[in-house]
Structures are given as structure tokens and as C-alpha cells.
Amino acid sequence: MKLNNKLKRDKxxxxxxxxxxxxxxxxxxxxxTTEQMIEDIITKVKPDYIQCDCKGHPGFSSYPTKVGNPAxxxxxxxLSVWREVTARHxxxxxxHYSGVxxxxxxxxxxxxxxxDENGEQELNNTSVFGPYxxxxxxxxxxxxxxxxxxxxxxxxxxxxxxxxxxSQYALKQFKIxxxxxxxxxxxxxxxFYEFSQFCREGFRKYLRHYVDxxxxxxxxxxxxxxxxxxxFMPEPISADVDFISGDYPLLNSxxxxxxxxxxxxxxxxxxxxxxxxxxxxxGEAGASTKTAVQIKQEAAVVLxxxxxxxxxxxxxxxxxxxxxxxxxxxxxxxxxxxxxxYCHEATPIPQIALLxxxxxxxxxxxxxxxxxxxxxxxxxxxxxxCLLDGQNCVEVVMEHHLFEGLQKYPMIxxxxxxxxxxxxxxxLLSYAENGGNLLLIGAQCAKIFESQLGVTFVGExxxxxxxxxxxxxxxxxxxxxxxxxxxxxxxxxxxxLHSDNExxxxxxxxxxxxxxxxxxxxxxxxNMGCRYLNGATSGMRNxxxxxxxxxxxxxxxxxxxxxxxxxxxxxxxDKIMVNLVNMSGHHSNDDVYIIDEIPCLGPLDIQIRLHKxxxxxxxxxxxxxxxxxxSDRKVNIRLDKLEIHSVIVIE
Length: 651
Description:
single chain, alpha/beta, TIM Barrel, Rossmann fold, Immunoglobulin-like, 3 domains, 8-stranded parallel β-sheet, 7-stranded mixed β-sheet
């Protein structure tokens, strides 16, 4: 089927996702899928692409596949209808396809299963070392590309479904490659890290293999593996995927988007994030559809970071779509389209780099890639939230982003990582020596740099103890690990920690700042990320922001008037885009599912440092010229109100 002038996925901005994970009990599959149903979706939403179900985690295909495992009750080939209508409108069609997770394939072929540490066959997850990829996954995706002419696949249940693999395929190869014959089964066993790294590389090879094999026959077919090369898999892109993508959770979605988007933006690959358009605790019956206002706010976070956006609506068990929900998505789509020219594929202007250490993540992660049911990233997420709540412009960066680009950042923050590679540590010290500002957070992180801090460590780290942080005549409670130090003449104190909720003589140093070559190193000797994530305080927020300002007193943008604003600063061409996102709402309250009101914020005072006076400043997407004052290389703007998301465009 030949299509005209259709964008590839890496240029697509707005999408809508449907899936229903067909199983053996689904009846009348495809029977209610009509051309008019799909026409209505396209008319109301006007998406660049649609993703819909073809094979979910149960492993049953919702179309009459000749190479896979079709569901038993297919009434009509719905996929051909989806393709016919989307082709007519030049709308891309992508498939939701479950990869590693395929329950039906393992029921029929148990020898394809991953084997766990107890020697038990997985019931759901295939081995990436076994024949599944060649005997089912690749042939079926080629069927989708060749027989149906779909544009690509969004492969779900892939990296995050992997685990350490004790199958015959894996163990044989591990022994050959490493000469390690004693196989570790528990995280405390010798060589568990090495075995985990071997299994991770097994997934990378599996991913590269199926992407390359598909591209050989269908070079324009677009492939993504859900959550590959993201926060789940924080590393350089090593497979020829066409785009990267992920679906963040049902609840606390705004905070998830602000973190996950920052993990994708520097990966040098077109990216998008998917919002779940319904809310509830995962697995709980009776989920509710989110309001347009709620989804717009989630979209605004993604758009402000330069990403594409899609939203996920479930299909009925027969594969049809609930039409009333498309009214909601139509309103969201209009909001996104109004902002597309000021956001999509924007490039961040370097300000604060928050390190996501791939090395430390893999050293600490007992699983392979997934962070679900894990608190490894909680300290970093808490520190990110704290920085953003103080209106700081922050990028999440990994080691491979920084090896050649440290000096472009005025500040680099290391958020409570307990491990760093020695060569990367030397890079960071060289960065500070040449004029950079390095902020180390946490007792374990401080220990890594002990000899460079201008302090003497006293005793060992005290674990998980309560302390009260004194700053600006206010005390804030915290619980975390603490390292006591005494200051040498090369360092000065910033903040104090007390053993009770009052000032007194019995305190210890909260942080110190010392010169290091032409730059500075500041160190917080206590862990605060988890506490802020689960118990944020204004005192902690103000302390961290003031410490940041102590090191970097002239940030590119400063916003005053509300702490419920995320600030990002990007460029598109020669224009500067200052994004302001209203973060008001009960996002971190899991007992609040649906939000239908976001209070306006303002007035806001905004200061932007520019080397020359701009030609004009517009507030987008409304196109309103903004009054401003320019003096001393600073633009000062008063913004009366912020609804959900606005962009200050400087030309």
C-alpha cells in the first residue's frame, strides 16, 4: 500500500495510543471496528499517528496473523480497516506489540522461556538468548510491515520485562565470554554484577538483532522499544531504533513526566512520552478517564522539554474505541498543536546538569533495567523536584552526555550516588579546576571526594537519623544519612544540622564550600532526596536553591511570584524559548485520581540575562507582545497570569 507524503515517526509530534491486550476470552474481536469509528477519531483529534493493538502481553494477536498466535474469537480483520482509513488521511499507523513478554508463545514453546535463579521456567517472559526472536517476533513484525503496510511498531514489555537469565542459552554463552564457571544467583554472590551486565548486553544484542533484521527488508519501517535508552536503561543508544519512547504511570504523572522527559531529551534521538488518559491505582477496577485539563498539564511538561506527546486510551475487548473519550483528546490535541512551533524538537540551553550515573545505577540495580519496585532513583528524583520547585533550570544528564561537554554547564550536581567510576570522577574534578561549579549531595557521595573538600571527616556515616536543617532563621526536619566533618581553613560552612527542632550549640555542618582551582566544590553532608520526594518542605527547597545561587549567582532565568512553576529554557533556531509550566495540583497524592481545576498563577516577575536587547518578546501561543525593561544586560518582565503553559519567545 503506497502512502503519500507521510512523515516518519521521528518527525511526528502528536499521537494517540490504543491497546487492549487481547486474550483467549475476548469475543467478537474486530466486529465493532468500523471505518466511521476511525474517521471520527481522526476528525476529532487530527493526530500525526495512531498506535493500536496487534499483540499484547498475553501473546494473542488481535488480527488474523499467519505467523503468530491469533486470538480464538476474531470476527473481522480490524487491522486492515485501521490501515485503510489512516492511509486515506496520511495518518501514520503503528502497532502496540509485546516483545519479551509473550505468555501464549511460552505456553506453546516452554523451551523459549527465561529461566529464573531457582531453575524455574518463566510463564510470561521469553529468553533474549533463545530462538523466540527469530521464530516469532521478527517474522510477525515483517508480516505487519509487508502484508499490512503499517508504518512501525512500539514494542512494549521489552527491556523492563527482562531478568537475569539462567537458561541453557545464556549460561553457555556467559561461561564462554567470561570464563566464570560459578554462576551467581543472588545479589550478594560473587560476580552477580558481571552476570547482570552480561544479561544486559544480551538484551542489547537481541534489540540490535531484531531492529537490523527488520530494517534489512523494510528500511523505512519505524521501530521503538518501550523504555529502551531511558531512565530504565540509562546509556548511549546502541541500536538503530528510529525513536525512543515510554509510558509514564497513571498517578503522580506530572512528576513522572518532568523526570522521564529530562532523561530522554539529551539522547540525540527523536522522543515522545505517553500519558495514560485514565487514573487509578494500577490493577484496580474502576479507573476514571482524566479530564482534558489534567492531560494538558501532563502534556505541557513534555512539550516544554521538546518532546512529542501521545495519550493512551483503552480499547474495548472487541477492539473498538469509546467515542466520547475522543472529545477529551481533541481538546488536548488543540492545546498541543497551538504550542508545537514553540516547543517540538527544541534544544535546551545548558544551565544545571543533574547527574544520572549509569555506572551507579547498574551497580545498585538488582534487576536488569526496570526501576519498578525499586527506590534506586528516589534520591535523584527528590533532588530534581526540589531544584525544579525552586524554579531552577535543570537537565538530567548521564556520563556519556558529559564526557565531552562538561564545561558548557555552569553547574553540575551529583545527587547522592554512592559509586562513580574513577575516570569520571577525574573528569568532574578537572571541570571544577577549570572554573566549573560542582555540587555534591549526600554522605556517600561526599565520601567519594573526601580528599578534595577541604574538610576532615569525623567518624563514620550515621545511617537514617533525624536532623533539623537550619537556614535563614528556619528549621526543617530531615531523616537521612549524615557524615560529620570539621572544616579546614580552605572551606566555609553553609547551613547547620541540629539534633532537635531548635537552634543550639550542639550542631554539625550541613554543607561546605571550597575553592578548587578556578572553580568551586560545594558538598552537602546529608542525604535529603528521599525525604523531599515523600515529605517536601519549603525550608529544604529554599536551602538547596540558595546553595545553588551561592555557586552560580547569575542564572539565565529567574522567576519570582510562585514556587508552583517549572522553568525550562530552550532554543529553536536563533530564538530563545522560556517555558513556564503551572505545576499546581494534587499530583503526589495517590488518593486524588482526577483533577479538573488548575488555579492560575501570577503575577510573576521574570528576569532573563541577555547580552543584547532583543528585537521583540512575545508570549506564545497567544502571540501577545510583552512589555519589558532592558538594563545591565537583563530583561525584566511582569507576567500577570499563567494558566497551564506559556512560552516567552525572545527574538
